[in-house]
Specification:
The protein is 27% helix and 39% strand. The protein is of the alpha+beta class. The strands form 2 sheets. A 6-stranded antiparallel β-barrel has the order 2-9-12-11-10-13. The protein has a 4-stranded antiparallel beta sheet with strand order 6-5-3-8, with no helix packed on it.
């Protein structure tokens, strides 16, 4: 009997110890981490798909009809303002100029003779005026012929880069035929489309009053080594997309950027005194975002919030939450609305520092 009693006592002790250990494990498992939102200044970098254009990009066309006698440049070559690029065979236009000069000389002689006759009252003043008009007409023909001859020599209107050559030496050109395009890449215009809501935020902010600096992410996923300035906004929205085009100007001293490239504009948007929470503290139901708010009695309450902007691992809360409240940080799927839980508070600065916060 004594042995049975001792065995029974030992069994009860082990059972009680096991129960205590089980209760302790259960208690630890039901302890949830909570934290507070944090209110501070931060920045958000938004990216917009962009198109890159030369500050001046023009077509060079033949102004006269004729054979292309000479091409003085090659594709991709840098040229200076006034440098000759193309020469159209000038023979016909030179002959027309010589003819116009000869006719001008004849008109000049006729005017001199008429002047002598007019001085002797042999001819009327009207005939003298007619001779004067003929000379002026002949001189105008000379000027016109000189202009046509000048058009046979096509020169660069500004410093730039020659693009694809559309004609070859010996080609018969029509008036207005495309020869090539010329790009001035000293500065680049970068266009990007902004949604209406973001446009309104920008146009009513302090950023508009100052020149907004932006960066350019190139197609190789590297940032361009110069900063740009948003200088202008187009006059109307695209009715199909609801966007409006912004234009930023970038200096291009090394000639890295070329007309027609693509990239992404990176615009830094400041936020003042905003409420920030970790993204992992939220959940969605039917496209709405919620958090669990924990009251002073450790009871959780499901609450809808409005997201103002998204940062890496973080949300900026526009509506529905203040920095003085407590939210459930982890175990969102393990609790229900109006449920009482055991909590452990984590400092919000510690929480955010572990989420790679980008703020200032």
């Amino acid at each position: 009997m004594k042995k049975i009693t001792i065995f029974t006592g030992l069994f009860m002790c082990i059972t009680l110890a096991s129960c205590e250990e089980h209760k302790e494990e259960k208690h630890e498992e039901s302890t949830f981490l909570v934290t507070n939102p944090i209110k501070k200044d931060t920045t958000l970098i938004k990216d917009y798909v962009s198109q890159i254009h030369s500050i001046r990009h023009i077509e060079l066309r033949a102004l006269e009809k004729g054979y292309l006698k000479n091409i003085s440049v090659d594709e991709g070559q840098h040229v200076k303002k006034g440098q000759q690029l193309f020469q159209i065979m000038p023979n016909i236009y030179q002959a027309e100029l010589n003819k116009a000069k000869a006719e001008s000389k004849v008109a000049q002689i006729e005017l001199a003779n008429t002047q002598l006759l007019a001085d002797g009252n042999v001819v009327s003043p009207n005939e003298l005026a007619m001779a004067q008009a003929n000379l002026e007409k002949a001189n105008a023909e000379v000027s016109l012929a000189q202009t046509h001859l000048g058009f046979t020599s096509i020169k660069a209107p500004f410093n730039g880069i020659i693009n694809h050559l559309e004609a070859r030496e010996g080609s018969l050109l029509d008036e207005g035929e495309l020869l090539t395009t010329l790009s001035d890449n000293s500065e680049m215009w970068v266009y990007f489309n902004v949604p209406e809501a973001e446009y309104l935020d920008y146009i009513t902010s302090e950023a508009k009053k100052n020149n907004t600096n932006v960066e350019l992410l190139m197609a190789n996923n590297k940032r361009f080594n110069q900063k740009g300035i948003v200088e202008t906004i187009e006059g109307e929205f695209d009715s199909e997309t609801g966007n409006i085009a912004f234009r930023a100007t970038f200096p291009n001293p090394d000639g890295i950027l070329r007309h027609g490239e693509t990239g992404s504009i990176l615009m830094t948007i400041p936020f003042k005194d905003v409420v920030i929470i970790p993204q992992k503290a939220t959940f969605e139901i039917l496209d709405k975002t919620y958090v669990f708010v924990v009251d002073t009695n450790h009871v959780v309450h499901q609450r809808e919030i409005t997201i103002g902007a998204e940062l890496p691992h973080l949300f900026i809360v526009a509506k529905g939450l203040s920095e003085t409240e407590t939210i459930l940080l982890e175990g969102i799927k393990m609790v229900r609305d109006q449920e009482e839980i055991h909590t452990k508070t984590v400092d919000p600065v510690t929480v955010l520092s572990n989420l790679e916060l980008y703020a200032e």
